[in-house]
Amino acid sequence: METVLSGIRPTGNLHLGNYYGAVTSFVKLQDIYRCFFFIADWHSLTTHPTPDNIQRSARTILAEYMACGLDPEKSTIYVQSDVPEVAELYLYLNMNAYLGELGRVTSFKEKARKQPDNVNAGLLTYPTLMTADIIIHKANKVPVGKDQEQNMEMARKFARRFNQMYKVDFFPEPESFSLSKDGGIKIPGLDGSGKMGKSDDNCIFLCDEPSVIRKKVMKAVTDAGPQTPNSEKPEVIQNLFTLLEIVSTKDTHDYFNDKWNDCSLLYGELKKKLAEDIIAVTAPIRERIKEYSSNTELLEKVARRGAEKGRESASKTLREVREIIGFKVY
Ligand code: TRP
Q1: C-alpha 2 – ligand 1 centre gap (Å)
Q2: Per-residue pLDDT tens for 165-190?
Q3: pLDDT at 195
Q4: β-sheet with 3-8: strand ranges across
Q5: pLDDT of residue 183
Q6: pTM here?
Q7: Measuring CA to CA, how many Å separate 163 from each of 2, 85, 176, 211?
């Protein structure tokens, strides 16, 4: 069976954009593939070297993903730093990764520009750590967004290079699995921007209380209203209709669409309905988030079991890697 793996940045709470863009796809993949999902807490040190409470952040993410349907019985869900084998593979990969190629990676250059006082080696070698994450389980498919395409190309290159340098056919070249093509939906932001997630106030978080959701939706950017019948919708308005398409029934969407077309649409009415429909979709998830977050015992158990399963798979690969390179195998 093919192996699917994806890494999760431990930054912030899950919002509707994450949910429809990636998490629902992960949940479906669990029934089809051997799946690994891990929280990339080591990667976060490249930008946040002195984290506030990294273990708590990881537990929050774990609770939220489980609330969305990620199932530790079906998948291996672990925290990256709980599987130290990854770090050893990262070391080997770094020996065969070159300054020139790492320095050309766009996300490295961007982050270097953003944090000029902390252009650290971890930032430069982000792609080799990501490669180690993937190939430690010999993953074949990696569901990622477009922004990860270059990192995925590096992962294929480093996997191929390992095979060539040591004259083996050991690591598969991991394929990206485009979330936008394979069912992921792009959720627009509430501030008129194309994408939810750009800033906190254009987001609806899955853990937001109904009163917060109502307030955020009512504040969503609009315009003066429809002026001519059957006109095309400007982006800010289309965004609200896109959200209706996702969380509401077709009847609701068509009702407001007709009102747009005959210029009788009142944005207040649309927003009220949209907020209630978002609340209906997110309420059961929010309830489960509360339940799981407060159950530290369960979260610890899941993390421990994930670490065991993750290490079992990782140590098998690492033993073979040590043998291939010529080190002692324990
Ligand atoms: N770089 C990914 C991101 O920023 C997170 C990540 C780390 C990852 N390691 C990975 C994703 C391995 C897929 C596979 O979202």
Answers
A1: 19
A2: 999 999 999 999 887 765 677 899 99
A3: 87
A4: 76-79, 34-39, 3-8, 141-144, 175-178
A5: 63
A6: 0.94
A7: 19, 19, 19, 55
Locate all alpha helices (DSSP H) within the chain, ordered by sequence: 16-18, 24-29, 41-44, 54-68, 85-95, 99-103, 106-114, 121-124, 126-135, 149-165, 210-218, 235-247, 250-261, 267-293, 296-325
pLDDT at 182 (0 to 100): 59
Q: Give which of 188, 191, 255, 268 is closest to 225, Cα–Cα.
A: 268
The single-letter DSSP state of residue 97 is -
Among 167, 271, 257, 164, CA closest to 216: 271
CA distance 230 to 258: 9
Confidence of residue 330 (pLDDT cuts 50, 70, 90): confident
The set of protein residues with a Cβ atom below 6 angstroms from ligand 1 is 5-7, 9, 40, 43, 130, 133-134, 142, 144, 148, 151
**Residues in CB range of 64: below 8 A, 6 or more apart:** 13, 14, 206, 207, 289, 292
Is residue 195 part of the annotated active site? The answer reads yes
Taking each helix axis from N to C terminus, what angle separates 296-325 and 85-95, rounded to the nearest 10 degrees? 40
pLDDT in tens, 190-204: 998 778 987 777 899
Ramachandran bin of 263, using left for φ above 0, alpha for ψ from -120 to 50, beta for the remaining angles? left
Q: Is residue 141 scored above 80 in pLDDT? A: yes
> Residue 233 catalytic?
no
Alpha carbon separation from 309 to 7, 73, 285, 295, 298 (Å, rounded): 16, 11, 26, 21, 16
Q: Is the distance from CB of 275 to CB of 209 less than 8 angstroms?
A: no
pLDDT at 181 (0 to 100): 67
Is 198 part of the annotated catalytic residue set? yes
